Amino acid sequence: MIHNNIFKLTQLTKEDVDSLNRDWLIGGWWKALDYKNALEKVMTAANSDTSVREQLRGRNNSKFFTVNTEALSFMTGLPLSASYLPEIYASLLAKMLGAENLDVNRVPRETKVTLTTYMRLMSTLNHFASFPPELGALAYKPFLRPGKIAEKAFSTPAGRTKNISIENITRVTNQALLWLVEYKPIILFVAAAVRDALEIYINTNAVSERNVKLAAQNAYAYQLEVRGKGIAGITRMTRTILSKCIDALQVAAYCLIAINHGRRKNELVGHNLPYGLYFGCLREISTIYEDWRVDIYVEKSCRSYVSFWCNDLVRQAILTLESISQIFRTLNTSPKVYYDNPTDGRYDKLFCTRAFTKIGFSSPPEGFEFGNRAAWFFELAEVDTDYFREKTQPFRRAYACLYMYRYDMPKPTALQLALRQDSAAVTEVYYTDAPGISPADGVQAVYAGGYDKDIIALEQVMEEVRREYFGDLVLRMLKGEAIGGNFPKLTFKLMQRLSKSVKFDELELASKADAITTELQRDGYSISPKEHGGCCATDASKTSGRSNCAVNGKIHPENASPKTCDGCLHLLVTEAYRDGLEEPLLDMRRKERDFKLPAAERLRIKCDADDLEAFIEADKYVAVENQRVISKLTEKWSKIFFKK
Length: 644
Prior knowledge:
644 residues; 4 domains; 8 strands; flat
């Protein structure tokens, strides 16, 4: 924009965005921002000006010549990193400055763009259109369907993890629970016995490790005798088999955590990485409620540790890993204790391994190579190991697909938050198919097939529940509850009409409510709960065209919000709804004063909070007025109340 003398989003035309789009598809930001032209201008200036050349000389102590990329970035007006600078320009600068030792092992600049990065670009540009007008929002939404546009732009589909079937997820889960519940006590008992025997062997300078070998056999035999059964297929325990069992137990823990959290393999295992689950990553927040948090590193988007709520199953899996970590600690040392500051323990990875030998315990535990050590577990689960290749994330994809296709109205933004992704377009990749995937192997076939079979029965049940709830709300109105929204006014008109009937007048209050509900449903009204109240409109409603969300006579309940629904004929708000809105209002007021947030975000939150507060206050008045009007009518039915 700046290179084209455009300084405000409001000045950006569709032609400008189309030009950016074309250039970006050809060569990414290198082409779109014209890096080549900017760098050549700086090279020309450096060739004729000694001071410019010297500013571009790197200041580190490396034996190789380096470029001061901070100064180069300032001169070009473009973001630059050392690895992004092509070798031709680094060589040219080195020659100008008389330097001979140029680092020739530079990583070549990558101009190739991918489907995923293209989707992220479009999602970001679309976000500019959602800015408040006072901040200079983009006047239109440039890309209406980023996913479809990206797929058309790329001839080769983006590689996506193969869909793992519900049947295979069930097999993995059952196998993991078997190891965590049935086999874990046996494995930990035997491992502790072998560790004790190793300590005695080392402390007494014994010549033979025979007692260590016997410790594994005897401990397992004892478990067989006490429990009446052991680990399937294992009749005699050795140290090698014990190590294999511990590997399988760790894989079981990994599977349960990954299925429940949708985290990446690296984030949990952390093999050869500075992060991963660590000793002390689990924290109990409350001793009264089942409230636990687990500290997990998010390797993309935020690239930092994030605290996630976890359920008891994940808690048990992590405690299992910590028990293994205790067994793998250095011999003749006290049991590990949690650090007061959890961050101090992040080096102590939970996924690790040791050989149960003197040499095996003479150095730190080894990293856990998941691919090699998980094969036996998946073989026992009768699941194809092809699902779990090095760069695949089957459980993360399954987590996303199960969420999106298990229910009829999922919220992608909630999934995006759970996966900790900074773009809805990136999240979409996890629950959609790449181009060319056959329908039989697609996510709809794998995850949504059961829903189609049950949809009719489910809708019947939901309709019964809606009718009961609708009838209950009508009865509560008649009993004098202060219910807000404008739908009680429409109901009041129906009450007046029905009151002209002698038969209706003689009914008890509950029967009156049932009769009113029946008439409302005949007229096409129902109840659909929203976050701020109930919407009583359907496409079949006589007054649907008068809905605030209606466009060309058709309602759009997906656009419901306090601002949209305020004053709508079909809104119904109970006292519980109003009370429930107070907490999010307080939270918004707190965030609008949080100066850690960008000014634009705080302004948006303030506007939303003002709308919500105005909605609550207005509805309180409407509720009292509804209560007064309906009470005047029900007073005429006083004989009904005396019958009760």
